């Protein structure tokens, strides 16, 4: 159980990083499914940029940076692959799970507590014009020790955004570009089509207890 807990903290403690995604896509069998990540002429090449604008995004892809340009479908496929590889069960967090991890049981506005938005605690307002490495803001940890819950990259959740729209999924957390304080709270939710891929949208794993 101790080893399981350590793995949960490692994977669910911050968004999935580029090096984890590379492990998934680099085997030859996967290149049939994800050629755009490896073709150097592609705007989504893992080494040159995984956003809609390669020139804008080309410096965002260091090994320990959060992987972005990921659709909800991509993220779910990764969860399935990792589950089969490890024998554990991984999925995207539900919105309820994500929000509890961010707010704790005290209903916090921000993961770190009462203190207002602070650029020493999260990456937002286009600070530096790019994402930061995962775990770069330890002072912004939630009550459960979760990092990067606010800012840096928005994170896909498992849930539909609305029950009557089966094409759209919810994302949480705001991103490095976000300036509106309302979009940088633990309870803000945003809608994307499940196939959308943005240069500020990634995901966080949830380890399912069996």
Detailed description of the structure:
The chain is an alpha+beta fold. The protein has a single domain (2-207), classed as paralog of FGE (formylglycine-generating enzyme) (Alpha-Beta Complex), CATH 3.90.1580.10. The protein has helices spanning 2-12, 18-25, 28-31, 54-57, 72-86, 95-103, and strands at residues 90-91, 154-162, 165-172, 189-193, 201-203, 206-207. The longest helix has 15 residues, at 72-86. The model is unreliable at 1-11 and 49-57 (pLDDT under 50).
Quick tags:
210 residues, single chain, two-stranded antiparallel ribbon, paralog of FGE (formylglycine-generating enzyme), disordered N terminus, 6 helices, alpha+beta
Quaternary state of this entry equals: single chain
Structural class: alpha+beta
Shape: globular
What is the terminal separation in angstroms?
A: 11 Å
Question: Topology of this structure?
Answer:
Layout: H1 2-12, H2 18-25, H3 28-31, H4 54-57, H5 72-86, E1 90-91, H6 95-103, E2 154-162, E3 165-172, E4 189-193, E5 201-203, E6 206-207
Parallel strand pairs: 2-5
Antiparallel strand pairs: 1-6, 2-3, 3-4
In short:
The chain has 210 residues and is an alpha+beta fold.
């Amino acid at each position: 159980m101790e080893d399981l807990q350590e793995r949960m903290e490692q994977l669910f403690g911050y968004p999935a990083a580029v090096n984890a995604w590379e492990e998934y896509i680099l085997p030859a069998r996967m290149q049939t499914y994800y050629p755009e990540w490896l073709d150097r002429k592609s705007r989504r090449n893992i080494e040159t940029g995984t956003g809609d604008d390669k020139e804008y995004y080309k410096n965002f892809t260091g090994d320990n940076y959060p992987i972005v340009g990921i659709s909800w479908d991509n993220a779910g496929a990764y969860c399935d692959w990792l589950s089969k590889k490890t024998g554990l069960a991984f999925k995207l967090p539900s919105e309820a799970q994500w929000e509890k991890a961010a707010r704790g049981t005290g209903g916090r506005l921000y993961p770190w507590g009462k203190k207002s938005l602070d650029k020493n605690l999260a990456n937002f307002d286009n600070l530096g014009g790019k994402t930061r490495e995962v775990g770069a803001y330890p002072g912004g940890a939630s009550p459960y020790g979760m990092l990067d819950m606010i800012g840096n990259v928005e994170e896909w959740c498992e849930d539909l955004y609305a029950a009557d729209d089966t094409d759209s999924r919810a994302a949480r957390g705001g991103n490095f570009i976000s300036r509106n304080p309302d979009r940088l709270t633990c309870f803000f939710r945003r809608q994307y089509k499940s196939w959308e891929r943005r240069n500020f949208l990634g995901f966080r794993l949830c380890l399912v207890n069996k």
